[in-house]
Each structure stands twice: as structure tokens, then as C-alpha cells.
Amino acid sequence: MSGGAVGLVFVSHSALIAEGLIALARQMAPDAALAAAGGTDEGGIGTSFELVSAGIAAVDSGAGVVVLCDLGSAILTAETALDFLDDDVRGRVRVVDAPLVEGGVAAAVAAQTGASLDEVVAAARSAAGGDPAQHGADEATRAGGSDDPTASHAAASVTLRNKDGLHARPAAEFVKLASAFAAKVVVNGKDAKSLLGIMSLGLVRGAVVELQADGPDAEDAVGALASLIESGFGEV
């Protein structure tokens, strides 16, 4: 099996939590392949080897599957399910140690953009946090600037028009558009391709959004992102 997009399985001790997370993620990644593996086979609190296995099978298109869990014993259940997979399937399934909600949403948005298995895993792990100030500095270092002196640079300042600011849905739309370009894009010091990074800015209506990009399509990236912000993301 090959092709398709990376799928995600959310493993929780509660079916309501797993299903609720899918509902949340669908607001930002409506086309991502998502499966809930919450609760026991009888509908109680706990985890189920069978539900995890079924979830993996349901979202496996051949591009890989990322499994996120809520508590330690859920990880054990997921890892047990992996042990029973065929070797070729097991090789493209990753159980990722990351916060279930934040990591799940970030990974779903990455999967929606067509990101690779490694990229979706990295998106999930970006929710692990650490020192927020250092994390922001690291993002800016990765996303901003270029060692290639011939690489093009573009910048723009745009005022955010949305009544509710850059909340989850427009932030996801912004990240998906930024991810379509090869250029490294920075938004107010944050990596434009990181959903959690963008949302951490807490941009409200009237905030000035500073866009900077470096790369072969830097001007196109800044132009498209500036236009999206100016459009109000369809909310104005």
C-alpha cells in the first residue's frame, strides 16, 4: 500500500475525550484521516488493544500512522497493538510521546497539509513545550534567515482584522497556506508553519502581523499570506 496522507489515532481512557478531540481537530483539519480509540470494548474507562488496532487499520493509507495517547497505560496498550502488526505496517506506525490535545491538533493540521510521517511526528512533538522563550527563539532561528546570500527575501506588515483575532480556525488556515511554500516564513518571531507557535502569539484584532520570508518563493509566500490576513479569513 502506498500514497495517501498520514493518519492519526487518538488513544484515551475515555471515549468522550478521544471523540471530542477528533471533533476539535476537524475544525482545523477537516480532511485529515483521524480515528478515535477511546475507552474499553464495553464502553467503560480504560483502553482497548482491539480499538487501537482497528483505529490504525482505519487510517493507514500507506503514508504512515501517528498514535497519540493520554496516559502511560494507554501508551502500553498502543505499543502492544504495534507488536501484533505485520512488519511492513509496523514500520510506518509511530507512537509519539506528546500532549494528546495540543499534539493531536498540531499533528492533524500537519497531516492535512500533506506533510510526511516525520513532519507530522515533529508537529506532535512541538507541543511538548520546554522553555517557551527558548522554543520561540529556536523557531525563529530555524524559520528566519538563510545561509544562501542569493536567496530572495520579502517582508510585509499587515493589520489583523478578525473580530476574535487569530483564533484556532484562521490560524490553521494560515499555517496550511504557509506550508505550501518552500520559503522559510517568520510571523512576529514565530515559525509560520507551526500551528502552536502561531497560536501562542495571542494575536488580537488590530494587532500588527510582521511577515518575513527567505527562499526561492519568498515574495509569493508573503504576498499570499498578507492577502489572506487582509481578507479577514472570510470572517470580516
Account of the protein in words:
With 236 residues, this protein is of the alpha/beta class. The protein folds into 2 domains: 7-128, 3-Layer(aba) Sandwich (Rossmann fold), CATH 3.40.50; 132-234, 2-Layer Sandwich (Histidine-containing Protein, Chain: A), CATH 3.30.1340. It is 43% helix and 17% strand. The chain contains 10 helices and 8 strands. The strands form 2 sheets. The protein has a 4-stranded parallel sheet with strand order 2-1-3-4, sandwiched between helices. Strands 5-8-6-7 form a 4-stranded antiparallel sheet, with helices on both faces. α5 (100-112) packs antiparallel against α6 (117-125). It is elongated, with a radius of gyration of 19 Å. The model is unreliable at 130-146 (pLDDT under 50).
